[in-house]
Specification:
Helix content of chain B: over 70%
Distance between the termini of chain A: 67 Å
Order of helices and strands of chain B: HHHHHHEEHH
Number of domains of chain B: 1
Largest sheet of chain B: 2 strands, antiparallel
Distance between the termini of chain B: 33 Å
Number of helices of chain B: 8
Radius of gyration of chain B: 20 Å
Largest interface: A-B, 25 and 35 residues
Strand order of the largest sheet of chain B: 1-2
Oligomer: heterodimer
Radius of gyration of chain A: 22 Å
Chain lengths: 54, 249
């Protein structure tokens, strides 16, 4: 397993590439999805507030 | 079928939601298959050994960085010509993902260049024009956040996107026009019309699967981002209120 992980001596470069790519794609997805949730929650709160005022 | 019907945010919003979910599932599936093939199916390269496996993310990311910019410029132009705000929103939704893929291209390129060329960075025609592409993306996003009025921002960003589009063919053909350290295109259209490549079939298929995975990922993330923008800008409309109520239940 360790031998496979070493990737013929290029392990650092290969895992450095794949790890950063995975990190960026995961973080971008989390940011977009979380922003959607906060927007929907805020809209919900605003509407409840408006309906109480009326 | 009147396509302009879909330029209305209220009609586009639910459609984009279904598309985003579908493409997200496809992206995950293709990524899992592609990654498995990248490491366990694709053979060791006779010259570069295992190091070449970086190709399976470097090349798709590079293609995406160029493709997304062209699509972004297309939406920006559509937004300016037909004054459809949704088109400008699509262009702005693409920019962050395009910038991300451009950075990934430069990063994985450096990590591949170090063991193969012995240098993290070289002022080479291909690398330099790709770096300019990153600045164009960042410039687009900075310009958009600097202008409050969405309509004026769309116009300014549209112009920047259109002016910058000339950089994409420069990147693509840089390896042929100048003698660059970066290798030439490994996939070419041969005269007989077929695809000519120096790669084995397995490598080619792994590359194509990873590329489709990146397409699906981009579509899913971009559509979700544009839906967020719609929610923000149309928050006072009736249809958004009804939609939020429906989702509250």
């Amino acid at each position: 397993m360790a031998e496979w992980f070493a990737m013929g001596g290029h392990g650092f470069y290969i895992w450095g590439s794949y790890a950063v790519t995975a990190l960026f794609m995961v973080v971008e997805t989390i940011l977009v999805v979380r922003r959607k949730r906060t927007l929907l929650q805020r809209l919900g709160r605003m509407m409840r507030m408006n309906s109480e005022v009326e | 079928m009147n396509l302009f019907k879909y330029s209305a945010p209220s009609i586009f919003y639910p459609l984009a939601g279904r598309l985003a979910t579908g493409f997200a599932v496809a992206a995950v599936l293709l990524l899992v298959i592609g990654l498995y093939m990248s490491f366990f199916v694709a053979p060791t390269d006779y010259k570069q050994g295992e190091g070449y496996r970086i190709m399976f993310i470097h090349v798709p990311a590079a293609w995406m960085s160029m493709l997304i910019y062209v699509v972004m410029a297309g939406w920006a132009a559509a937004g300016m010509i037909w004054r459809t705000r949704l088109s400008s929103m699509m262009a702005s939704a693409l920019a962050p993902t395009g910038a991300m893929f451009t950075f990934i291209t430069l990063w994985t390129g450096a990590l591949w260049g170090k063991p193969m060329w012995g240098a993290w960075w070289v002022w080479d025609a291909r690398l330099t024009s790709e770096l300019i592409l990153l600045f164009l993306y960042i410039g687009y996003m900075a310009l958009e956040s600097a202008i409050d009025d969405p309509r004026r921002a769309a116009r300014a960003c549209g112009l920047l996107a259109l002016v910058g589009v000339i950089n994409v063919p420069i990147i693509y053909y840089s390896v042929q026009w100048w003698n660059t350290l970066h290798q030439g295109a490994s996939i070419k259209m041969s005269e007989s019309g077929g695809i000519e490549t120096s790669m084995t079939d397995i490598m080619l298929w792994t590359l194509l699967i990873m590329t489709f995975a990146c397409w699906c990922y981009t579509i899913a993330v971009t559509l979700t981002r544009v839906r967020n923008t719609i929610l923000e800008r149309e928050s006072k409309t009736v249809w958004v209120k009804e939609m939020v109520q429906r989702e509250e239940k």
